[in-house]
Design a protein that fits this description.
Nuclear Transport Factor 2, Chain: A; four-stranded antiparallel sheet; two-stranded antiparallel ribbon; 3 helices
């Protein structure tokens, strides 16, 4: 494993840790100003400010737990992309009995921009 690949894996782990802790300031440091998140059925969420606003609203109502499996990382000079499988459990703070599970494939690219995640399946636990 190259140093660049390990750095990408470390960034993913840091993102997971910061998300679990609800540490928005730490998360924002991990993304480019012009980050773009692709969300199925919604227009792209563009920029740190849009992410921060959505995160602030979300953590008032939900707890986020996630795990990620990195399937592939490709690096060519200053450009890199990764493919990972992301599992997210979103639990409403008012009802811990009904978590929503999101499964997504994540596509990221180097050069200062993230393409975010593409949710592919949602289920509600009984």
């Amino acid at each position: 494993m190259t140093n660049d690949e390990q750095s990408i894996r470390d960034l993913v782990a840091e993102w997971q840790s910061a998300t679990a802790a609800g540490d928005l300031a730490r998360i924002l440091l991990l993304m480019a100003e012009d980050v773009v998140f692709l969300i199925a059925g919604s227009p792209p969420m563009r920029g740190r400010e849009a992410f921060a606003a959505a995160f602030k609203m979300g953590v008032q109502h939900i707890r986020i737990e996630s795990s990620v499996t990195i399937q592939e990382i490709q690096i060519a000079g200053d450009f890199a992309y990764g493919l990972s499988h992301l599992n997210v459990v979103v639990t409403p703070l008012w009802s811990a009995d009904a978590p929503l599970r999101l499964h997504a494939d994540d596509f990221s690219q180097g050069g200062g921009r993230s393409l975010g995640s593409l949710p592919r399946r949602q289920s509600v636990d009984p």
